[in-house]
Amino acid sequence: MEEKKKGRPRVDTEAVNLRLSREMLQAIDERRRLESDLPTRPEMIRRALAQWLAASEE
Length: 58
What we know:
Blueprint: H1 22-32, H2 41-57
């Protein structure tokens, strides 16, 4: 995984804003704590989406 850099976001990305229920946020936070590197919420959501997309390709 790349080391985080300060400054502007990458130009090949777009922001996505969404609202999640407290229950879903709690579930995401609980799952984050199982990871050895304690990812941020956005990173955990990215990982979950990547896993879901990979599984849907199989």
